[in-house]
Design brief:
Length: about 500
């Protein structure tokens, strides 16, 4: 008889999660053998939704203590393993089945899963990635600790100092840091209040100090965040802390937000002495060096980040560090150096890493426009950018229009219409090209960012004056005979704000 697989109990704490709970519970179908939900006072349909999924619901008052609430559910769990999630999290469909396999490994005590925190409205807007302990063996000695950012690892190691924690490739998608969700739940105020309580109870707790620094950053209080991270960095045994790399990274980030770029670069450089394979720190060195005009140092650091690639799974990282974000940063550095070949290569490299990425396309259009190469843009895009269908072609044309290059967009669509033999596609592209020639941009994405010849009343005041400034600088640049003067004006134009798709 085949051995019966280990049972997994999903334990959650929730309050007013009717929007998110169905997605979370759908994601654990086939993984969790039982669902135990501690509800801390929902007034919406949360409890009814949980019960429809067969969950055991425990009603409990909120005592401003996440560990206490989690332990209420853990004590009811009957599975050999406990998986814990929040309502705004979902197991990744492609990787979640690995949990069933790991549950059969008797030598393992806990599993670390990869959290992907989505920070924008969609997956292209960026994410942070880091490993977290989210599944552990059910044992009476295994209980959560900590009023906020509660931890289970301390009790596991207290029971068994040689416990094996395994780093998996299983992904959890977390949507709770999206701006709208944070605002709806008032997470920032709640977290700050709980951390202040926790620090009052245990002032020497380095983990609480680090976490309050993170909350200061989220509240745009960079100076206080910097103080918190530096206090954490001075703690005994700092380098052995699992989050030490983040303390160093966020120290640099706090300094960046304060405009102290040289100190920020030095802090990131100090971090690489301890964590030489942490890609994010090298990216930060490149960014900070470029911000102070040290382009050689910036390029060397960017090359190091690209050489390392995405940070190893044990680190907290941001999507694109060592790949598309770093290549994009290289492109910006090459812009400052007026290296046209470098600009094109860097932005194409970013697109190879992430073909759906918009910012490199916007920067390529803007760079060619400011370099006086707008007439070459359509042919360059047609040769270098592969568009699989009409929607992709119109998207690229929309980028050109939004970058102030409507004539290039017309030429590009006409080029593609000639290239493709399928009559329906040729006709549709020709119609779109004619509409653009007549000033009708309604069929394109990014229609709110119109071409350089639009009238004042079709643009916002800020956009109108930005376009007026762009046109003025373009005329002055064209009038200059000296290359250095033209390049100086080009640099100013490249710094003007514009839509880039981040």
């Amino acid at each position: 008889m085949a051995e019966q697989r280990k049972r997994i109990s999903l334990c959650m704490i929730v309050k007013n999660e009717e929007k998110h709970l169905p997605g979370c519970l759908d994601s654990v179908l086939g993984i969790a053998d039982e669902i135990i939900i501690v509800d801390t006072g929902s007034t919406d349909e949360t409890i009814a939704i949980a019960e429809r999924y067969g969950a055991q619901v425990i009603r409990s008052g909120w005592e401003h203590d996440f560990a206490k609430a989690r332990n209420i559910g853990v004590e009811r769990a009957s599975g050999e393993w406990i998986l814990f999630l929040d309502a705004d999290e979902q197991l990744d469909a492609a990787t979640k089945s690995q949990l069933l396999e790991y549950a059969g490994h008797a030598e393992l005590s806990a599993l670390l899963l990869q959290i992907r925190n989505q920070v924008g409205p969609d997956h292209d807007q960026g994410s942070t990635i880091h490993p977290v302990l989210r599944m552990f063996r059910n044992d009476p000695a295994h209980r959560f600790e900590g009023r906020i950012h509660e931890q289970i690892s301390f009790s596991i190691l207290r029971k068994n100092p040689s416990a094996r924690f395994h780093l998996t490739d299983v992904v959890i998608h977390h949507y709770g840091y999206r701006t709208q969700v944070v605002a709806e739940k008032n997470k920032l105020q709640r977290n700050m209040e709980l951390l202040e309580l926790a620090l009052a109870e245990d002032p020497g707790n380095t983990f609480h100090r680090y976490n309050i620094g993170v909350e200061y950053l989220r509240n745009n209080r960079a100076a206080e965040a910097l103080d918190a991270f530096r206090i954490a960095k001075r703690s005994a045994g700092f380098e052995q802390l699992s989050y030490a790399h983040l303390v160093l990274k966020y120290e640099s980030l706090s300094l960046q937000l304060l405009g102290r770029w040289e100190e920020a670069a030095a802090a990131a450089k100090e971090g690489t002495a301890i964590f030489p394979d942490y890609t994010d720190l090298w990216h930060y060195i490149a960014l900070c060096s470029a911000s102070t005009g040290r382009f050689k140092n910036a390029m060397e650091a960017a090359e190091k980040a690209l050489e390392l690639g995405a940070a190893p799974a044990r680190y907290h990282t941001e999507g694109g560090m060592g790949t598309f974000r770093t290549a994009y940063l290289q492109g910006r550095i090459y812009e400052a150096l007026h290296d046209e070949q470098g600009v094109e290569q860097a932005y194409m490299k970013a697109l190879r890493f992430k073909p759906s990425l918009l910012p490199p396309l916007f920067r390529l259009c803007k760079y060619m426009r400011t370099a006086g190469r707008e007439g070459q843009l359509a042919a360059w895009m047609a040769r270098r950018i592969s568009c699989p269908d009409e929607a992709a072609m119109l998207k690229l044309a929309g980028v050109m229009v939004a970058s102030g290059c409507p004539d290039s967009a017309v030429a590009y669509l006409e080029w593609q219409a000639e290239l493709y033999k399928e009559p329906g596609l040729r006709h549709s592209l020709s119609v779109q090209a004619n509409a653009l020639r007549d000033g009708d941009y309604g069929g394109l994405p990014f229609a709110g960012w119109l071409g350089k010849d639009e009238a004042e009343d079709t643009l916002s005041s800020a956009a109108y004056w930005r376009e007026r400034a762009e046109q003025y600088l373009e005329r002055v640049q064209q009038s200059k005979e000296r290359s250095a003067e033209r390049q100086a004006l080009q640099s100013i134009r490249l710094l003007l704000p514009g839509f880039e798709g981040w």
